[in-house]
Amino acid sequence: MADEFIKGLALFCGAGLAWMVLAGWYRTPSFESSRQLIAAPPEPGTVFDAIGIFLNNVFFWTAIIGALTFWLLVPAIHRLRDSTNAS
Amino acid sequence: MTDDTTDDGEPKTDGGGTGIVAPDDETPTWRERKERTEGLSRLTYEYFERARREDEDLRRESDYVERDVLAFPTWPHETVRNLALTSFFVGMIVFLSATLPPHIGNPANPNSTPAIILPDWYLYWSFGLLKLGPLNPELAILGGQKLMADRTYGVLANGIIVGAIAVVPFLNKGSARRPVEQPFWAAVGVFGIVLAFTLSMLSVKNLMPMNVDLLFDLTFFAPLVAGFVAYAVLKTMREGYMYDLNRRYYRLRPPK
């Protein structure tokens, strides 16, 4: 239980930090706007920008899906297996 | 394990073992547990195991009345831990300042007020309390006028919040070591933390990408929801996970 929690939390924090940095680079037109971290990314000018914008999405979904997996999916599977074994 | 326990096998709080250092015949040695691991983890484990063993030996030799508060010496235990924590936070500061350097704007012009004025982030909650204008009632008895200006109302709201925080220590002495021991007060704490966060969000409402009225409602609704959820979760945890251990710590606590 605690192991699954810390795995989910590590994924959430680590991928979330990387997402925040990349979103700060590519999806924040100004730090005084109301569209910080969520504005539409610009058209990538270089291949590095393209990689950064792609990784931004990768890290975002890693944070969301990783946390959901270890906090909800894996415990649910364990619970299901225990209940089927018990009956 | 002969003289450390009462007849029913429960650890005593003084004169015997603390119940925290396990007896020799029950504790696997570091060699048994970690025989095949190598490197720093093995070294660390060996170090702490030796310290634990020395602690236990000293405890058994001495005729000193047992305290039930265990502590590690400052050097190296606490120092190494503190260095690890310090390194983490210094690394985080370096990482963030390298990757997200703060924007340095034009020199301040004292003749014009900036469009966005904000205090330091840890005072956002107080700044948010100054924006409670919609809660300031228009009294019919005054012909639809407000009793006090919105700014006065915000300052009074600060006094109420600070007063509530000041009262809490008189209502709860803080003897719980973990939230599961006192779910209600843990829920009160969750409510306060979430309220501080939502008030902070309210204080930067002109930077928030959402409807301001919805934000205002969520400012007071979200803390209530979080508090109820925390209470329910902790109340559920009480009967389950490691609750025996918590009760055991309760028993080992010094008398008030």
Structure keywords:
heterodimer, A: 87 residues, mainly alpha, 2 helices, 0% strand, B: 256 residues, two-stranded antiparallel sheet, 54% helix
Summarize the structure in words:
The complex is a heterodimer of chains A (87) and B (256). Chain A is mostly helical and 87 residues long. Chain A has one domain (2-86). Helices cover 75% and strands 0% of the residues of chain A. Chain A has helices at residues 2-26, 47-86. In chain A, α1 (2-26) packs antiparallel against α2. Chain A is elongated, with a radius of gyration of 18 Å. In chain B, β1 and β2 (145-146) form a beta hairpin. Chain B has a domain at 121-251. Chain B contains 8 helices and 2 strands, in the order ααααββαααα. Chain B has helices at 30-34, 39-61, 74-99, 124-129, 150-171, 183-203, 212-238, 243-251; strands at 138-139, 145-146. The chains are: A mainly alpha (87), B mainly alpha (256).
Q: How would you summarize this macromolecular structure in one to three sentences?
A:
Chain A has 87 residues and is mainly α.
- Based on secondary structure, the structural category of chain B is mainly alpha
Distance between the termini of chain B: 28 Å
Uncertain runs of chain A are none
- How many distinct helices of chain A? 2
- As a whole number of angstroms, the C-alpha radius of gyration of chain A is 18 Å
Assign an overall shape of chain A. elongated
Give the amount of beta strand of chain A, in percent.
Answer: under 5%
Largest sheet of chain A: none
Note the main sheet of chain B.
2 strands, antiparallel
Averaging pLDDT over every residue of chain B, what do you get?
A: 79
Structural class of chain A: mainly alpha
Tell me the helix content of chain A. Answer: over 70%
Order of helices and strands of chain B: HHHHEEHHHH
Determine the fraction of residues in helical runs of chain B and give it as a percent range.
40-55%
Oligomeric state of shown chains? heterodimer
Instruction: Please mark out the parts of chain B with pLDDT under 50 across 5 or more consecutive residues, or reply none.
Output: 1-5
What's the overall average pLDDT of chain A, rounded?
92
The dominant shape of chain B is: extended
